[in-house]
Design goal:
single chain; alpha+beta; 5-stranded antiparallel β-sheet; 11% strand
């Protein structure tokens, strides 16, 4: 993170909001050294224990701690205008949420922190949903397809922890999820139903509704695998199948179209190329005489 920061402090804000900072790129973060006294910790070594537990929780949830806990340093005053550089850490909102979850629950301020970061995370989710609603169909497809790519990485990690190790294991595991959501159809059967070529991926030819259903199926399967600490390939497959069934049942109860009956969309690769071209900087015009 950049050393140049913009404080966001107002008297009416919570202590957690008052110490929030924003770097030059507009990315918010919290300093662990600033958060420590707010959570009523007086010794850095004691607080580091909480930081370590939070990083372990982050990794166990399928996220890379490096994306949420960034090593840093901070200058502190020693008196008589003397300063010393000390160890610090820059934290994302999610990191702070994990820290307060792993801090001393007897402290009243810790309970306040748990509420604050839970509420703020929910507000961000609502904001993301509003932003998604303003996108075009093509933009929503691109965003959802990218989210599924990332989510499937998290799902693979959770499945591996459960004992789904080899590529063949994971193919079987994935097919259980599809079978639950698509009324028994495997990935190969869905591919055939959509009349796709051998080289075409079924996720690349799904519209937003179908992509969203598959994203929900994946997130619910991952969450249950981790929450219940599922062990064994058969048990993991059963969890993924049930996640698909539950999503399918929800679609039916809402009167929606079943995923296998949704139309085949044009290749998202075409949309990606068009979006890349749209965002590309204009080509520099050659001056007269240049070759």
């Amino acid at each position: 993170m950049s050393d140049s920061i913009l404080p966001t402090r107002e008297p009416s804000q919570t202590p957690f909001e008052r110490i929030r900072q924003v770097d030059d790129d507009g990315i918010e973060f919290w300093s662990a050294r600033d958060l420590m006294p707010v959570l009523e910790y007086t010794k850095w070594q004691n607080f580091k224990t909480v930081l370590i537990r939070a990083q372990i929780a982050c990794e166990n949830s399928g996220h890379d701690p490096a994306n949420h806990f960034t090593g840093a340093s901070k200058m502190v005053a020693l008196g008589s205008d003397a300063k010393r550089e000390v160890e610090d850490m820059h934290l994302s909102r999610y990191a702070c949420y994990l820290i307060v979850q792993n801090a001393d629950p007897a402290k009243e301020v810790v309970a306040l922190g748990q509420t604050y970061f839970a509420v703020q995370t929910r507000r961000q989710e609502i904001s993301d949903a509003a932003a998604l609603a303003e996108l075009t169909e093509e933009q929503r497809r691109l965003l959802l397809r990218q989210r599924i790519k990332l989510q499937n990485t998290d799902l693979a990690s959770a499945a591996k922890n459960a004992g789904v190790i080899t590529g063949q294991d994971f193919a079987v595991f994935q097919n259980h999820g599809y079978r639950g959501l698509y009324n028994g159809l495997t990935a190969e059967a869905i591919h055939k139903r959509k009349k796709l070529k051998k080289s075409q991926h079924i996720l690349d030819h799904m519209g937003t509704t179908e992509l969203a259903a598959n994203l929900f199926r994946s997130t619910q399967a991952e969450e249950k695998l981790r929450r219940d600490q599922v062990q064994g390939k058969d048990a993991a497959n059963a969890v993924h199948y049930e996640a698909g069934v539950v999503v399918r049942r929800a679609i039916a109860e809402l009167g929606g179209t079943m995923p296998e009956d949704l139309p085949t969309a044009e290749s998202i690769k075409k949309l990606e190329r068009a979006e890349k071209k749209r965002l590309a900087p204009p080509k520099k015009m050659k001056k007269d005489g240049e070759t």
